[in-house]
Amino acid sequence: MYRYDEFDQAIVDARVDEFRDQVARRLSNEISEEAFKPLRLMNGLYLQLHAYMLRVAIPYGTLDSRQLRMLAHIARRYDRGYGHFTTRQNIQYNWMKLAETPDLLADLASVEMHAFQTSGNCIRNISSDQFAGAAADEIADPRPYAELLRQWSTLHPEFSFLPRKFKIAVTGSKIDRAAIKLHDIGLELVHNDAGDIGLKVLVGGGMGRTPMLAPVIRAFLPITDYLSYMEAILRVYNRHGRRDNIYKARIKILVNDLGAAEFARQVEEEWALLKPLGLDAPPEELARIAAHFAPPVLDATAPTEIDLSQPDFANWVAVNTHPHKVPGHAIVTISLKAPGEIPGDASADQMDLIADLAQRYAGDEIRVTHAQNLVLPHVRRADLFALWQALMSAGLATANLDRASDIISCPGLDYCTLANARSIPIAQKLAVTLAPQEADLGELKIKISGCINGCGHHHAGHIGILGVDRKGEENYQLLLGGSGAEDASLAKILGPGFDENGIVVAVEKVVDRYKALRSGPDERFLDTYRRVGADAFKEAVYG
Q1: Which pLDDT score, from 0 to 100, does residue 392 have?
Q2: Under DSSP, is residue 483 helix (H, G, I), strand (E, B) or coil?
Q3: Kindly report the CA angle at 357 between 352 and 361, in degrees rounded to 5?
Q4: pLDDT per residue over 6-48, tens digit each?
Q5: Strand 52-56 and strand 91-96: pairing?
Q6: CB atoms near residue 432 (< 10 Å)
Q7: What angle do CA 207, 213, 215 make, to 5 degrees?
Q8: For residue 368, which of 81, 128, 79, 146 has the smallest C-alpha distance?
Q9: CB 467: neighbour CB atoms within 10 A?
Q10: How far is CA 315 from CA 369, 378, 536, in A?
Q11: CB 482 within 8 A of CB 442
Q12: Are 373 and 335 in contact (CB under 8 A)?
């Protein structure tokens, strides 16, 4: 993984010192809350319902053990003993004290971490495939290109005050585990006919109030022209993006209004001016960055066959591990979704344990997924049983990856000032209700948002739930048919909403109808829905 050089460290240390002074001035009332708000947001600090919330950046979801232990320390020292992993591959702490945040940020800086560009109208944390560098199906590791984007975007003076927040995702596989079609910019590593590596560029996706799938604006971009082309996209957006209406400010609105072809034409026109200016990283710099992501030395002769006679272990291996590019190894997903628990939450003790296990079994790497789970990317198959036993002891061996209880959920009205309804209780009730039958149900992705901003990715759920305010009461809309994968689609509202108990019953009815309609046990929910249409499910729910 990437390690800071002296320039990276100097930038982060300087920001900590700057924010320490700003906090001191706020606490002494030298500056008002109104003046302080943009300063704290530039450091990932939000004022939520009960306390300050701090969002810490985890670039492209990659951590090592010392960083995860620091996140555990922060949970104990500054929060209430836990952290919440988000759908942007970050971590949030919900019980911050303003006076302590400079010390917290200094602690983060000591392990090459920070919290800026996790909020505000800037380029947010770059996300990527959580299996990057390990998956057997990838063309190349996307993380060097994500790191180059991180360095380019960090405190970029021209793009620090965009019309609206801006999200970029990079993947190296045709199997899309990064939801690139639902980002402002989605990038996929591809080969051209000559075998050269480049990028397929998608622009204008997103969820929220106006969900859209990003169209392709360039089928192949030479990797050497990477940064200048990104600069061209951002310049076109910064020039023409709406600043008069927050609901129409995202780049997806601009791309939709102009049309993908016209937007692409303007980008190409801008790029023609930028390309000769030397904005792209020289090959030696890209090589320097890529060297940080050299794959670990793994034993290709490690045994592939393991004892699967223990049924619970065998089920966990089948559900929560993924093929590794090196024989005798596996990618392990650690579920943070035990039924009844809060999706994405991990205690300080659990984080410490996972850090220990990453050191022992996974080449000292941990990944955060946009589905709010953690990944150990390089595990010998021969070590899986010992790893599983250790996870069992900490309540972390739930075998439910992409199953009904592996629910994505935002914090909702329990914490968030923007929310209209609670998300966490719905996720908990559904997980407990559906877990006993999820092996039969197969792949079923349920996603819950507490407001239209869509932080829970409800529009990308096979089953999506959106919390709304209905005359002062919490109400939940039911959506079906979404996907954030390579077969991306947007879920559609099925009909009138429900109260807290009603939405759980409605989902049960949808599941029952799916079991009655599927062509066989291997037809997943999404495929059944696409085959039969919404009306069959609407009849089951509403009669």
Answers
A1: 98
A2: strand
A3: 160
A4: 999 999 999 999 999 999 999 999 999 999 999 999 999 999 9
A5: antiparallel
A6: 14
A7: 145
A8: 128
A9: 28
A10: 21, 20, 32
A11: no
A12: yes
Q: Residue 260 corresponds to which tokens in the numbers above? A: 């993908």
Q: Which two tokens stand for residue 188?
A: 């996929």
Q: Percent of the chain, pLDDT > 70? A: 100
Residue type, 302: A
Q: What whole-number distance in Å separates Cα of residue 303 and Cα of residue 467?
A: 48
Q: What mean pLDDT is reported for the chain?
A: 97
The Cα 404–Cα 525 span in angstroms is 10
Both tokens of 105, joined, read 């940020």
Q: Which residue has the tokens 């910019």?
A: 185
Instruction: Write the DSSP assignment of 171-215 as a string of letters.
Output: ESBSS-SS-GGGSSEEEEEEE-TT--EEEEEEE--B-TTS-BPPP
CA nearest to 103, candidates 39, 40, 16: 16
Instruction: Identify which of 226, 178, 232 has the alpha carbon closest to the alpha carbon of residue 205.
Output: 178
Beta bridge partner(s), residue 527: none
Cα(492)–Cα(477) distance, rounded to whole angstroms?
Answer: 10
Task: Single out the residue of 106, 102, 73 nearest to residue 91, CA to CA.
Answer: 73
Beta strands in 471-522 (DSSP E): 473-480, 492-493
**What are the tens digits of pLDDT across the range 78-117?**
999 999 999 999 999 999 999 999 999 999 999 999 999 9
Contact 60, 24 (CB under 8 A): no
Q: Give the tokens for residue 117.
A: 């560009």
Amino acid in position 189? L
Question: 208 — alpha (psi -120 to 50), left (phi > 0) or beta?
Answer: left
**487-509 burial, b if ≥16 CB within 10 A, otherwise e?**
ebbbbeebeebbebeebbebbbb
Quote the pLDDT of residue 20: 98
Angle of CA points 71, 77, 83, to nearest 5°: 40
Closest CA to 39 of 53, 55, 20, 56: 20
The separation between CA 122 and the C-alpha centre of its own chain, rounded to angstroms, equals: 17
**If you ran DSSP here, which 8-state letter would residue 116 be given?**
T
Q: Could you tell me if 351 and 366 are in contact, meaning their C-beta atoms sit under 8 angstroms apart?
A: no
